[in-house]
Amino acid sequence: MFNGSVPTEIGLISGLQILEWNNIAANGKIPSSLGQLKELWSLDLRSNFLNSTIPSELGSCTNLSFLSLAGNNLSGPLPMSLTNLAKISELGLSDNFFFGQLSASLISNWSQLISLQVQNNTFTGNISPQIGLDWKPDGNQELDLSQNRFSVPIPPTLWNLTNIQVTNLFFNEFSGTISTDIENLTSPEIFDVNTNNLYGELPETILQLNALRNFSVFTNNFTGSIPREFGKSNPSLTHVYLSNSFSGELHPDLCSDGKLVILAVNNNSFSGPLPKSLRNCSSLFRVWLDDNQLTGNIADAFGVLPAAEISWLLGDCNRLPSLNLSHNNLSGEIPFELGNLFSAQIMLDLSSNSLSGAIPQNLEKLASLEILNVSHNHLSGTIPQSFSSMLSLQSIDFSYNNLSGSISTGRAFLTATAEAYVGNSGLCGEVKGLTCPKVFLPDKSRGVNKKVLLGVIIPVCGLFIGMICVGILLSWRHSKKSLDEESRIEKSNESISMLWGRDGKFTFSDLVKATNGFNDMYCIGKGAFGSVYRAQVLTDQVVAVKRLNISDSDDIPAVNRQSFQNEIESLTEVRHHNIIKFYGFCSCRGQMFLVYEHVHRGSLGKVLYGEEGKSELSWATMLKIVQGIAHAISYLHSDCSPPIVHRDVTLNSILLDSDLEPRLAVSSTAKLLSSNTSTWTSVAGSYGYMTPELAQTKRVTDKCDVYSFGVVVLEIMMGKHPGELLFTMSSNKSLSSTEEPPVLLKDVLDQRLRPPTGNLAEAVVFTVTMAMAYTRAAPESRPMMRPVAQQLALATKQPCLTEPFGMITVSKLTAGFHK
């Protein structure tokens, strides 16, 4: 394995034409001496640890045809000298930290280009209108500008790339519409513009894209109906993602050619029946039809869908398919053929429809099913006892139907809460809150002395009644405050304002009763924004209630109330494994309350600095926690519409469940980024975690979360707040000056743990290195959370260390990060 930086002497090899040093763990700067290699036509330095910027001298390599610097830690704007690369045909700069613009003066001379890949950087602003104008007309073309911050309409010259096969523009801020000139693209296979600010209707000309395989436009602002023949006129379609505000009907022949693998049309306003072609679409693996207004009988669409096999298109993916038809107007019975729908899958969600009849026993064949939800329908009969053989089930919900009889004896059924069965008056079983009526057989014995029985029963009953009276008196005295509170609520002429998400099935009165009028004995925490109470509602469901220190009448101006309500509504729609479920909001007599899922272990800070930190937090567990937090913040930034900036990522806003899985609490301090701005000017956050620029600009962006996340990661790995380390890195002080010995990484990490070894050591070094990059002083040089989460997910797959773990210095990890 190569060890060290690219030697400057390589520039002396005057006749060198090809240099391939990819994936060899090279570090340091790209030597400027490469500019002396006048004959060089292929330079591949991807997948290393190179840092700093691209040397301007590289523009002197005018014979370069292939240049890849992808997958490094390079930063800064692209040097203007690169415009001299007139012969460049393939340019790969993805997965770095570049910023700035792709201006016309930079790219105008790249007339031979057939592949431009700059994804996973932080490029901003305008894209040259000349992009694609002078591209080489022949060859298979590829353009990937995804996961940057471009914020202009899609350049019209893009529609002139007639041979383009891959167009990835997703996760940007592109605006405008999709031009009717899209028909000029004669051979596109992938067209992905998801998560932008595009709007309008899809042009009819997309029906001309015969080679199209992947069409993804979700999380934009598209409206209207999709072209009538879409799908039928695109015979190669395998992946369709349409989640927007579309309406109208889905074409019945959407899968007429039987190639569709993924169909995601959820979160629209589609109406009418399910497409009949789905009935025989044996290629289908994942279907999202939820949150529409679809009608009809489910059996008409899925009645004879055959058992599917794992498609080669999924490669090595071991996450099996899901079917989500929830929140529609589907009727009829659940077809027994659904048991043959997949050989294995994660979720079957048929909730919130109008399905009737019995639950088919054939569903027991879904042996790998993890989530089963048939709640909020009109199902009757019993829950099949054979479901006890479904050992993979983790979550079930049969609530709000007309089911009866005993519940199944499977593990998932017995460990579920009563909430999973509520709304079925005839259900009973071995679950807390559910009881089966006991059957008393008549006593046929004639030898019992009734006088003796009466002599025993009457005194016992008297004693029992006396105990009840004493209990009622004590209870009345103990809960008088609570009763007075409830009475004032009920008698108050002021209205109680409530806004609940789908899972908020309780009232404000339930919260008052559960906390004894918000008595201090139920308070589990206090902070700058309010107090948090533990409330047990709905038999055994425990929630956390935050009583805010602000008044809805005094502290929130009327002009902002609608904005606040919109924010609350958006938070109730947040769904992620690493984010605490937010049930809703209510206010009464000027006081405001936020209701969350209760997480038992408490905050990460409590665990990290408590006794559990010594016994339970291993390096592997810490890495898992870091990765979970990254995925949660990435979801808020990239998968919510509009994106959500958390603004207060700290150890106290991260809770841990019983398995030490991190759960991020998204509170009232979170802010939504509107479609026409990427900043807010209201400062929030906690001291020690706030990004430095907030003190001067007061501009809140998603890069503020990235900085806070970096601080949290360092605190987790160090076992203490990294304030001193951050100060040293941000100042002009050197971490490896000649006057003092260099600071070793092993001395900075949590001293309660043994130093990591093997793959864990490589993962820890990588994670700390990345965390230092997240805390860069310049916000534009910090990465976006999507690539952050992707990078950290691969932390345990990093190349071997180039030197012993105990000799690695902090200065080597921070090189080029804090300038």
From TrEMBL:
Class in the EC hierarchy, top level: transferase
Domain Protein kinase: 518-801
GO MF terms held by the record: ATP binding; protein serine/threonine kinase activity; signaling receptor activity
Transmembrane segments: 452-474
Keyword DNA repair: no
A Gene Ontology biological process term: post-embryonic development
Compartment(s): Membrane
Entry's Gene Ontology cellular component terms: plasma membrane
Catalysed reaction equations from the record: L-seryl-[protein] + ATP = O-phospho-L-seryl-[protein] + ADP + H(+); L-threonyl-[protein] + ATP = O-phospho-L-threonyl-[protein] + ADP + H(+)
UniProt keyword Glycoprotein, yes or no: yes
InterPro entries tied to this protein: Kinase-like_dom_sf, Leu-rich_rpt, LRR_dom_sf, Prot_kinase_dom, Protein_kinase_ATP_BS, Ser_Thr_Kinases_DiverseReg
Protein name: non-specific serine/threonine protein kinase
Species annotation: Glycine max
Lineage: Eukaryota, Viridiplantae, Streptophyta, Embryophyta, Tracheophyta
